[in-house]
Every structure is written in C-alpha cells, then in structure tokens.
Specification:
This protein is 26% helix and 29% strand. It is globular and about 95 Å long. Helix 2 runs antiparallel to helix 6 and helix 2 packs across helix 10. By secondary structure, the protein is an alpha+beta fold. The strands form 9 sheets. Strands 3, 7, 8, 9, 10, 11, 12, 23 and 26 form a 9-stranded mixed beta sheet that branches. A 5-stranded mixed beta sheet has the order 17-15-16-18-21, covered by helices on one side. It binds one RNA strand through strand 15, strand 17 and helix 12.
Length: 566
RNA sequence: CGGGACGUGGCGCAGUUUGGCUAGCGCACCAGUAUGGGGUACUGGGGGCCGGAGGUUCAAAUCCUCUCGUCCCGACCA
C-alpha cells in the first residue's frame, strides 16, 4: 500500500511545469501560501538530494551540525540585522515577551557558536554545515517550492585564520558544488556575483538553467565569461555613426507622449535614437540623473555602485521642482542634478530627449554640445548585440534558477560578535569566514523544471524516488500478481528501490500515473509474461522499450546498477 | 505595500451581469456488472449551509459593507 495521490488536472494555481508537476505527481501539497507538506514521494526525492549534498560536503571536509530554527533576537541585534531584515523575517515572542525569529539564515548563530567554542588557530580551518529548514516571509511566494516561505537549505560556514585558508576552503566548496550539480545531472552555469559595495569579496552563484527561472544571466560562448545580469560587465554594441554631422537642436511638440515606446513611434525613429533619462535618489534624497540609450534599461545596482551609494528610483514628482515626468532630458535640467551617462550614449548623435517641458521633446540633441556629462559609466543591463568584456564575442543570455551561492564573508560577522581566536603569534584575531548555501527544496523544483515532458516528470536516476516501477496489467490474474511479487522481492534483494503498483485499476491508469511520477525504469508484467516469461522494460527518460526475459533480470539490474553507481 | 483577479463537494469549473423552484457539470470517491497493454463502458450511490461576518430584501451563491484567504502583475513611466 502506497500513498501517492496524483492529480489528473493541473491545479489552477500552478504557473510553471515544476509547480504543476510536483503537485500532480503527489510530491507536495500546499498548506498555506509558500508553505508545503512533503508527501512520501517528495520526501524520498528530498532525501536523495540531501544525501548527495551531504556526501559531497563531507568529502570536502564539512562537518554536520544542526542549529536551532528559533533564534533569539539578541544575536540579530548584535549583527544589526534585526532591523535590516525587516518584514522578511518571521518574528515571534515567548511567554516572557522575549523576541525571537524563525531563522531566515544562520550566520549570527554560527558565529556565536564559533565564539563559544573555537579558541585557537590549531582548531582551524573548520567548516560546519547543516541541512535545515529556514523561514523567510517573502513578499510574493511563487512557483511552489521555487520561492517558498518555509524551505530547506544546506548552509555551510567556514572559519579560517587567514584569507589564504579561506581561499582554499572556498575552492573546495566550489568544486563540491560542481560535483553535486554533476551527480544530480543538472545543466547549470556558475556566475560571478561579486558584490562591489562590500569590496574585494568574492561570490559565485550556481544557476540551474530554466526558461521559467527568475534569475537572468549573461555568458560568453567563446571564452566562458558569465555573470548575473546585475553584475555583468560588457562592451556596448556600437551604433556606428562616427561621421554623422551634428544637426541643429529643435523643440517638437509631443502631446501626451510620455514613454520611449510611443515616442519612437510618434517621431518614427528607432528606440536607440531616443535618450532615456531616469532620476534616482540616494538616502539623503539627493537626486541624480542617469541617461542611456532608449532601448536600454537602467541597472540601478551598478549605478549605485559607481556612486558608492544606495540608490532608489525617484518615483514621485518632487514638490517644488521642475521635473516633468515623461518629458525629462539632460538639456536644461535643473542645475543641481548631476548627469551620469551610460556608455550606450557615447556614440549617439542627433538624438531625441525630453525637453523638461510638458508635452515637448527635443530632437537633434548632442552630448557635449548641448549638455555636460558628469561621469561616464556602465549603468545599463547588457542587451542583445553587446559584446564580451573579455574577448569581444557576442554575449548570450539565459534564464535560470539560483540553486547555490557561495561567498567569502571575511570578518564582517566575526568582528561584530567578537568571535576571535588566538593565532600562532599569540594575538587575538577575528575568524575569516565564508558561507555556502544550497536551496535543497528549490533544487527539487529545479530538477523537475529540467526533467519533464508533457506526460510528467522524468527523474534522473540519481534523485529518483524509486529506480524501478513494477506494473501488472491486471490485478485480477493471480499468476501475474505472484510473478510480480517474486520479481519485486528479487529486485529488493539486489539492492534497487522498487515501487510495485498493485492497484486494481486498468493498465492505462497505471501507465499514466507512472509517466507522471517519472520513475526511470518500468517493468510491465502482463500477457507476454504468461505467454513466454518475458516482461517489457521501458525507460522514462528516452521512452525506449525493450523485452526482457525473466531469466535476464539479474544481468539487467547489475548493468543498471553499475551504470548508475548504485 | 500598490494595482488586478479569484474564492461554489477532494480537484477543475459553470451559475453571479438581470436576486426567485430541491445549486449544476466533468474528474475523483463508494457499490455493482462487463472490461483489463495507455486515464474503458454502463447502472446505482455518498458528499457542498456557495471562504467568513454583518446588512438590504418577502426572497441572496447572486446586491452592499467589512473581513480572511489565494493567485497574477508591479522602474523602463522618471
């Protein structure tokens, strides 16, 4: 008797394949927005994923622990993140009115632990990890397990006495992550995700490629450069207009034309011939203007980095200022607003901008002649046609799911927590830390996202809930049932995981369910068994069908096991 | 948080605009018969106070108010 409740139809709430399929195949059930139960099949997959991760972490020198889910507010106040984290954190209070949270991550706790128990450089380096549930009250939980509020993560934290050792541990983790991806059988990319504001810190994201993923990444097919959209460096596609003659600037009436789309249509020109002006402000409400080619988008992260400030869009009309939303431009802009120009503007000539007057734009505007740029930089996202910063080849774009993120933390947390050790020279130093995360439950969704067809899931053997699915074409024939039982126990003895569908249902239903839940190999015991002691073997991934005499089962299983390292 | 939509047996939906009989359909479920290699056919069943609260009305799934939940979208307009 098994508990695998499958659904015939896609649940209405499911937007992407992995969401629909994890529900339909009876892996998970939603309990509240972003909160899921794992049913037996889902749990088995989860355990498989965890096992692979655990093995690779152990191989890479990790040591497993479990840290509490419920964490006292004091630790978070110490790091300053009690306030920083904001509404993303689930908070609770005990009967004595002490504040706690459900841990969204564990840097605070682990640093505190290190502070308690690591005293000497002789105990370093140390790399502790756990596979533990985490809680984040996401603004918008989405896509089932992909963006959930309760989810399982593997998180590791390393403690070293110096940055050289951190580099070593970091590299070990990097290769462990690659092994994990390879063993599971995912197609992925590692992207550079260095965060400039913190400075010097290295970080890599492991992205599982998927069209429905939320992460956008850029890569170079020639030299292998890759980065996420936010961080990607690139060489702007040239517009090739070096010898164009500068025309006379003119004001034109553009009633109600407030966006680039309608502007380029109205003036019958390409978007690349228009100039986009975006106002942002820093945390002191000082306003800056960023200009870029109209077919580009502001990368506010980069813009902020170049100014060394946290920027946000200046969204509302600022009171007492002459800022005409939809008709902004660098010419005649209020004097105190500095103009930062994206490289995409550098070879633009005679372009269109807002006139800073309602319903008016300027044409034949030219940089230098008509306005001054305070600073040039790369402030937009890479676009189709842009080139690799390293080798000049055309960049390519992909979408994906962020599955892993590794990070050189340095001493940020250890300093705040006074987590120090006594070094060789007898001096107290803060631990040099790194942290390394993998979204375990998210990984499950990502695997489904990459391994499905119109009939259902097709699990890679490495994480399949079972290896082999035995189906009898009827449950009414005792000969078949007996044979199935025999084969079932034989397979178990041989060390493969078998799911025997003995339900008294028509064969068609069992086939459909089997396709849906995606077990890699199917043994069909039916007429052919009665006639000539032969079973049909189907493989889910490539849908190949072969006949297998029962005498040859041993050999088949041996081959299957060795091929899949079971 | 802002905008939009939805909430009717386990699941997917109709009915709501224009209030009016015992609230429907498909799937699933239970019993039976025939089936038994791709969601088979037929027969007979069980299950819903229409998310919740309040209101309007002779009468509310349907209209109004509030509330809870769920899903989608959210600089490119600056």
């Amino acid at each position: 008797m098994m508990f695998i409740p499958t659904l015939k139809e896609d649940p209405g709430e499911a937007e992407i394949p992995s969401h629909a399929l994890t529900l339909r195949a009876g892996l998970i059930r939603k309990i509240a927005s972003g909160i899921y139960s794992f049913l037996p099949l889902g749990l088995r997959v989860l355990k498989k994923i965890e096992r692979i991760i655990r093995e690779e972490m152990n191989n890479a020198g990790g040591i497993e622990v479990i840290l509490p889910v419920i964490q006292p507010s004091e630790l978070w106040k110490k790091s300053g993140r009690w306030d920083e984290y904001g509404p993303d954190m689930f908070r609770l209070r005990d009967r004595n009115d002490r504040d706690f949270c459900l841990g969204p991550t564990h840097e605070e706790l682990i640093t505190y632990m290190a502070h308690l128990d690591i005293k000497s450089y002789k105990e370093l380096p140390l790399n502790l990890y756990q596979i533990q549930v985490k809680f984040r009250d996401e603004i918008r939980p989405r896509y089932g397990l992909l963006r959930a509020r309760e989810f399982i993560m593997k998180d590791a934290y390393s403690f070293c006495s110096n940055v050289q050792d951190l580099d070593l541990v970091y590299n070990k983790m990097y290769s462990a992550y690659i092994k994990i991806m390879e063993r599971i059988g995912l197609s992925y990319k590692v992207v550079n995700a260095e965060t400039g504001l913190i400075g010097g810190n290295v970080s890599h994201e492991f992205i599982v490629l998927a069209g429905d993923g939320e992460e956008r990444l850029v890569y170079c097919p020639e030299c292998g450069y890759s980065a996420n959209m936010e961080m990607a460096d690139f060489a702007c596609a040239k517009k090739n207009k070096e010898n164009t003659e500068l025309k006379e600037i003119k004001e034109v009436s553009t009633p109600g034309i407030r966006d680039i789309d309608s502007l380029s249509k109205f003036l019958n020109t390409g978007k690349g011939q228009t100039l986009k002006t975006i106002l942002v402000m820093d945390n002191r409400k000082k306003i800056y203007a960023f200009i870029m080619s109209g077919d580009r988008e502001l990368n506010i992260t980069k813009a902020g980095k170049s100014l060394g400030k946290n920027l946000e869009l200046s969204r509302d009309e600022e009171p007492g200022r002459n800022l005409k939303a939809g008709f902004l431009g660098p010419v005649g802009l209020e004097k105190d607003i500095e103009i930062y120009a994206d490289h995409s503007v550098s070879d633009m000539k005679n372009f269109v901008t807002g006139a800073n007057r309602e319903d008016m734009h300027l044409i034949n505007v030219n940089t230098g002649r008509d306005f001054k740029v305070r600073q040039w930089g790369n402030f937009s996202y890479a676009c189709d046609g842009d080139n690799c910063i390293e080798c000049g080849a055309k960049l390519k774009f992909e979408k994906g799911i962020e599955i892993g993120h590794i990070f050189k933390l340095g001493t940020k947390y250890s300093e705040k927590f006074g987590a120090r050790f006594l070094d060789k020279d007898g001096k107290l130093r803060p631990f040099v830390m790194g942290c390394y995360g993998i979204g375990v439950t998210r990984m499950l969704s990502a695997i489904v996202e990459q391994n499905h067809d119109d009939k259902g899931i097709a699990w890679p053997v490495s994480v399949a809930p079972y290896h082999i699915n035995i189906i009898t074409t009827t449950a009414k024939d005792p000969n078949l049932s007996e044979a199935a039982e025999d084969i079932y126990s034989k397979l178990l003895k041989m060390g493969v995981e078998v799911l025997y569908d003995d339900r008294d249902l028509s064969a068609g239903i069992k086939f459909k369910d089997s396709d849906l839940i995606g077990i890699p190999v199917r043994f069909i015991i039916g007429k052919k068994y009665i006639d000539k002691k032969v079973i049909d073997v189907e493989t889910r991934m490539d849908r190949a069908k072969t006949e297998l005499p029962v005498d040859s089962i041993n050999g088949f299983i041996k081959e299957f096991k060795s091929r899949n390292n079971i």
